Amino acid sequence: SIDHRDLGSMIINPYAYAAGGSPFGPGPDTITGLQLWLDAYQIEGLSTGDQITTWSDESGNGRNATGAVMNTLKPTYRATDGPNSQPAVRMVRSDNGQGGYFTLPDFLTGLAATSAQAFSVVKIDTDPPGAFAQAAPPLADWGSAVDEYYSFPGDSGIYDAFGSTVRKTTGAPATSLATWLVYEERTASGAWSRRINAATTGANLFSTGTNTVGWGSAPRIALYTAGVRFMNGLVAEVFFYNKLLDATEYQAIKDYLNSKYGFSL
User: CA-based diameter of the chain, in Å?
Assistant: First the structure.
C-alpha cells in the first residue's frame, strides 16, 4: 500500500492509485485539462479546529485558495468529518450574516474556457437552510450571472450560474444537500447541466440546451457576494477541468470518488 507522505514537494495520494490513477490528479494522468484541485486530504500541518489560511492547489497551476473571513469565522480544518472519515474543510455562517469562505485568483477569465466541468464533494448542515441563512453554491461567482443559491429556503431549489452568463433555476433535488454528495456542473456553448451523485436521469439531473459560456473574475468557494450568502457546511474536495470529460474519463473520476469516499456513483 502507499501511505500519504511528503516526498519533498510531492504529495502521494493513495486514493488516486487505488482508482488506477496518478498522484497528480483526481484520476488517471491521461486525463488532461485539470485546472484546479483542492483536496482536504492533502492539507498538511493542521489539527482539527485550526483555521486555514491557504488551501493549496494540487493541480500544479498554483491557484491556491485563500481563507477569508467576515467576523471571525475563517474556514477550519476537520481531520475526520468528511465522507468515509476523510478530512474536510468546515465553512461556518453566523446569525448576523457573516462567515468564512475562500477566494481564488482571477484565473477563469484568462483561461476563457469554451467548455468546462467541475466536481465538488460537499454537504450543508441544513437543507433547506433558514430564511436568513441561504447557502452559497460550493463554487460561487464562477459565472458572469448573478443571484446564486445552494439552496433557496423559499422553494428548496438550487440557483446556479457556473460558467454561464445566465443563472440556471435547477429546482429542488431529490437528494438531500445535507448528506455527503458529489455536486457536478458542466458548461458549454448551447449546453449546461448539473448532476448530483452522477445521476443521469430523474430528479437529480437538470440540463438545458440554452447557454452562453461566461466566467466570473473573482471566483470564490462558499460565498456568493451579491447576496452575501455563505455556506454552512463542509467541503472535502473540489476539482475543475477546462473541458468536458469523455465517457472513459468520467468513469475514471467516478471510480476515484467511489474508492476514496465510499460512494456508489
Answer: 50
Write down how long the chain is: 265
List of the chain residues with pLDDT < 70:
1-24, 69-72, 94-98, 131-133, 199-204, 227
Residue type, 170: T
Helical H segments across the chain, by residue range? 14-18, 108-111, 247-261
Residue pLDDT, tens place only, 52-71 = 999 999 999 999 999 886 66
**37 bridge partner residues:** 239
Rounded Cα gap, residues 195 and 172, in angstroms: 12
Q: What pLDDT is stored for residue 6 in this prediction?
A: 42
Let me know: does 127 contact 177? Beta carbons within 8 Å.
Answer: yes
First to last CA, the chain: 24
What phi and psi, each to the nearest 5 degrees, are found at residue 83?
-65, 145
* Digit-coded pLDDT (tens) for 138-182: 999 999 998 888 888 788 889 999 999 999 999 898 889 999 999
Q: Which residue has the cell 465538488?
A: 120
Fill in the amino acid letter for 21: G
Which H or E element spans position 11? strand 10-11
Q: How far apart are CA 215 and CA 204, in angstroms?
A: 25
Find cell 448532476 and name the residue.
195
* Helix, strand and coil percent figures for the chain, each rounded to 5: 10, 35, 55
Closest CA to 87 of 140, 28, 45: 45
